[in-house]
């Protein structure tokens, strides 16, 4: 098994050594101009409060070290952090259209306290200090995707972003953030440049598992000019990103079986009652366009307008094989038992008879279109600043899915290992079975889905600031904001089970291919290739497949009487409206004492009115009735902060705030989505493995509330060098988590229902340690001063009372799902005028994915809730840049160099015994291209 522990030790040792040595050396040398801390020069503020969208400090020429891309971006990010009223970390593009990574979400993974998940060749699911409950803004205006509360940050290509600001504490003038904070995406604007600017990039991206390469690029044009009515500027930036990925997974079933007498001569041992292989393959395309206009009629007024278009297009081709091992007539021989478990557990056996292996081939098309238009004005004159801003946002996501379900025509002998050597997880093979004969595959059924989700909003705000000429109150602030938000989701699906007809692939109007690829770096494992229908032929002939399915269903089944995509199901539909009215007031203060002190005191009040409409089903009469849920509440969100400037280099901050996160609209949805049938329902309806899965919302959810306490020690020993320690605590009420339970249902028998529930109280305590510096030391030779390091570490101790269903099994405050206790980043940098390099390592410790109910035959039915845990993992990335002439840079990037798989494990009894649930192999991404600037 590949290990990265030696890499952990080496990288951490290097970071600690540099972190300890550099400040000490800095104190013993005479500071050059590059080492002298200096207040940043802020660019002109936009239509929001100047703190709502901080501007990077202007580039400064240093006497001893030339300011280049990475060094300049670190200086700008450091200036934002040092001078901000909030506790904030930023990522600043090191060049026009060049964040440190390929997408915004990947860059955020380098920020102290930020954690992400990785799949499909990209980073997603951004969390701050272990929490996903974020508010996202674009140039200070709230932005979201479809019906969600926040935007998909992976939809922002690096070419369209100037900087990313992660607010970990709030002040009253900011759009109310979630309990995790607020992330603001900053775009370029024409007044950022002195005159005309043309720049762009063109690069080829290659992913090793899919063995596919695609062209990506972006282009920016900006200009500003003087007119008789003042100065104007216009900017447009377009980007095109595409990648084709293949993620490969081998997995054990979530359910543990028990060997029965008559199945084996060693009954009573436990084992996962199925094994499987999954290929998640697809093509993701993200075109985007943003434009900005600025007009400054005179020294007092500024008008600006912003336009954003984001698009997402995916064409997925998913393949799944599942080998069931739970039939009563299955025989087990050559049993290999594991040692050290509380209950006997099989490492492997040979299975004869029983149920046939089965699977599906899915063709999924999805797309998102998001638009935002914003218009704002700012007036400033003699200590008075007034700004007003309006914005319109519209976002829609849609998906269509067609699945061919199949089963083997016979049941071959199966040799199964549940914990294989190397990376762990299952391995299996079939005896005397031809996986490449289409006659060996039976058409089991056809699944059809049509899904749409959307959202739009109108937002308006007015802010007022007054800066008095004297006194300890340095600024008075007040403002109002209003939002009107609509959200909707519609879903229609149908499934026709026709396995008894005995049709094979040869009887279907589809083209055939073989699955394969993936599992890079893995030896052995399950079969990697088998016959499957091609993605395009399923989609192209979907109506013919619907007709075949309809002709073989019983006459009273009318699900497939109509062709085309299925109609929306009222039970799987909701619409929502939310109106929020906000007012805030805040003062900033400063005392010019022996130790200068400044800070802020404020209050933000938000009144929210929500209405969610759906449909309910009367279980006794099977009738459908429209339902509506209304709610109205007011949040009072105070904030207080103080900063002690002990010297030009050292400052201490403290902040106390209250934040809240509204439930997502889909979490409030009173409707229920019924998923495709799973498990043994088709072959053994009385089996414990027969269930119908479903998802629903919970209109009775309450907002999450958090009281937040932050303390930060910050030492800035040069303009690109700093060390900081931050301590934080969050006291949270009402954590929302998905809970899965088995419930009786008059139509489906057993319904495995997943729905959100509020938990009780919870707390998060943690620390963040960060160090950043180039080695700008007089004691070092000039070549050594081109090296730099960024290192940060985050510790989070997080627990929360679970919802009442889970709390019966897990009392107290178990770990919050999604939160790693430990995570760190280490970035080693080298930069000089012609060549630069960056080696970045990101690691997070194991974390609970979710608490799942054990549906265990050994316990006589549904059992306790126990955790599914993802194991620790690290990611190593490399970036090389060569600049032969000032206007052109050749760039080479590699993401996920190590290629270590993602593994998770399932606890299956109260004694704590576990087994590997999944082993997933992700893409390694290579990019080669050129950036240009004129």
TrEMBL record:
Record localization: Cell outer membrane
What UniProt keywords are attached to this protein's entry?
A: Cell outer membrane, Membrane, Receptor, Signal, TonB box, Transmembrane, Transmembrane beta strand, Transport
Signal peptide positions are: 1-26
What GO CC terms are in its UniProt record?
Answer: cell outer membrane
Output the PROSITE patterns linked to this UniProt entry.
Answer: TONB_DEPENDENT_REC_3
Against NCBIfam families, the record matches this protein to: TonB-Xanth-Caul (TIGR01782)
Protein name, entry field: TonB-dependent receptor
């Amino acid at each position: 098994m590949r290990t990265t522990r030696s890499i952990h030790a080496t990288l951490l040792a290097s970071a600690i050594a540099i972190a300890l040595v550099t400040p000490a050396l800095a104190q013993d040398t005479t500071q050059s101009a590059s080492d002298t801390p200096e207040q940043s020069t802020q660019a002109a503020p936009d239509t929001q409060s100047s703190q709502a969208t901080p501007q990077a400090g202007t580039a400064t020429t240093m006497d001893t070290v030339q300011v280049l891309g990475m060094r300049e971006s670190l200086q700008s990010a450091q200036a934002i952090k040092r001078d901000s009223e909030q506790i904030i970390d930023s990522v600043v593009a090191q060049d026009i259209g060049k964040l440190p990574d390929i997408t915004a979400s990947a860059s955020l993974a380098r920020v102290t306290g930020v954690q992400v998940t990785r799949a499909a060749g990209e980073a997603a699911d951004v969390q701050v200090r272990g929490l996903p409950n974020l508010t996202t803004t674009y140039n200070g205006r709230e932005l979201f995707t479809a019906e969600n509360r926040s935007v998909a940050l992976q939809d922002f290509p690096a070419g369209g972003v100037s900087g990313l600001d992660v607010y970990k504490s709030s002040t009253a003038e900011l759009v109310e953030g979630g309990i995790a904070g607020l992330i603001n995406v900053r775009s370029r604007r024409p007044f950022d440049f002195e005159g005309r600017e043309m720049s762009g990039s063109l690069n080829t991206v290659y992913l090793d598992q899919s063995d596919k390469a695609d062209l990506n690029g972006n282009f920016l044009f900006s200009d500003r000019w003087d007119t008789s009515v003042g100065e104007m500027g216009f900017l447009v930036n377009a980007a095109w990103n595409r990648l084709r990925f293949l993620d490969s997974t081998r997995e054990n079933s979530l359910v543990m079986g028990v060997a029965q007498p008559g199945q084996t001569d060693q009954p009573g041992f436990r084992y996962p009652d199925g094994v499987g292989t999954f290929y998640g393959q697809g093509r993701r395309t993200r075109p985007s366009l943003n434009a900005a206009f600025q007009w400054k009629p005179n020294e007092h007024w500024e008008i600006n307008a912003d336009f954003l278009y984001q698009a997402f297009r995916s064409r997925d081709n998913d393949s799944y094989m599942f080998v069931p091992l739970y039939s009563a007539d299955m025989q087990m021989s050559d049993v290999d038992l594991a040692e050290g478990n509380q209950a006997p557990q099989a490492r492997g056996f040979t299975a004869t008879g029983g149920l046939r292996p089965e699977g599906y081939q899915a063709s999924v098309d999805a797309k998102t279109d998001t638009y935002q238009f914003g218009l704002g004005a700012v007036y400033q004159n003699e200590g008075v600043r007034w700004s007003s801003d309006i914005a319109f946002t519209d976002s829609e996501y849609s998906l269509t899915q067609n699945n061919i379900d199949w089963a083997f025509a016979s049941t071959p002998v199966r040799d199964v290992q549940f914990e294989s050597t190397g990376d762990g997880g299952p391995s299996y093979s079939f005896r005397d079975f031809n996986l490449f004969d289409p006659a060996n595959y039976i058409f089991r059924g056809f699944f059809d889905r049509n899904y749409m989700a959307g959202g739009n909003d109108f937002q308006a705000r007015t802010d007022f600031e007054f800066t008095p000429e004297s006194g300890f109150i340095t600024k008075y602030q007040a403002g109002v904001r209003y939002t009107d938000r609509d959200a909707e989701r519609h879903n229609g699906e149908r499934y026709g089970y026709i396995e008894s007809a005995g049709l094979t692939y040869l009887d279907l109007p589809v083209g055939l291919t073989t699955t394969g690829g993936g599992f890079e770096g893995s030896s052995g494992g399950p079969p990697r290739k088998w016959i499957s229908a091609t993605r395009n032929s399923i989609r192209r002939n979907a109506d013919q497949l619907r007709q075949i399915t309809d002709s073989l269903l019983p006459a009273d089944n009318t699900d497939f009487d109509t062709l085309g995509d299925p109609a929306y199901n009222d039970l799987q539909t909701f619409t929502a409206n939310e109106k929020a009215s906000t007012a805030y007031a805040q003062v900033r203060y400063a005392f010019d004492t022996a130790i200068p002190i400044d800070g802020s005191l404020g209050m933000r009040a938000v009144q929210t009115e929500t209405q969610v409409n759906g449909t309910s089903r009367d279980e006794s009469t099977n009738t459908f009735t429209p339902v509506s849920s209304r709610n109205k509440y007011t949040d009072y969100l105070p904030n207080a902060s103080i900063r002690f400037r002990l010297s030009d280099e050292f400052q201490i901050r403290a902040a106390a705030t209250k934040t809240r996160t509204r439930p997502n609209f889909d979490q409030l949805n009173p409707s229920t989505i019924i998923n495709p049938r799973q498990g043994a329902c088709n072959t053994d309806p009385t089996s414990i493995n027969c269930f119908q899965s479903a998802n629903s919302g919970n209109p009775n959810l309450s907002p999450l509330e958090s009281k937040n306490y932050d303390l930060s020690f910050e030492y800035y020993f040069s303009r690109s060098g700093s060390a900081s320690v931050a301590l934080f605590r969050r006291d949270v009420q009402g954590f929302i988590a998905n809970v899965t339970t088995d419930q009786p249902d008059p139509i489906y028998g057993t319904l495995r229902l997943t729905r959100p529930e509020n938990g009780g109280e919870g707390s998060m305590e943690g620390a963040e340690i960060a160090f950043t510096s180039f080695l700008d030391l007089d004691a070092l030779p000039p070549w050594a001063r081109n090296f730099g390091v960024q290192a940060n570490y985050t510790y989070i101790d997080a627990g929360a009372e679970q919802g009442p269903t889970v709390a019966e099994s897990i009392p107290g405050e178990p770990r919050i799902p999604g939160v790693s206790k430990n995570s760190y980043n280490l970035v080693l940098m080298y930069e000089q005028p012609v060549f630069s390099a960056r080696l970045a390592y990101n690691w997070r410790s194991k974390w609970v994915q979710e608490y799942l109910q054990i549906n265990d035959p050994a316990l006589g039915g549904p059992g306790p809730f126990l955790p599914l845990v993802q194991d620790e993992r690290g990611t190593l990335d490399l970036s090389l840049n060569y600049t032969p002439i000032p206007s052109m840079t050749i760039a080479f990037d590699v993401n996920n160099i190590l290629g270590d798989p993602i593994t998770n494990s399932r606890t299956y009894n109260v004694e704590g015994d576990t087994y590997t649930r999944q082993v997933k192999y992700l893409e390694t991404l290579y990019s080669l291209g050129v950036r240009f600037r004129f």
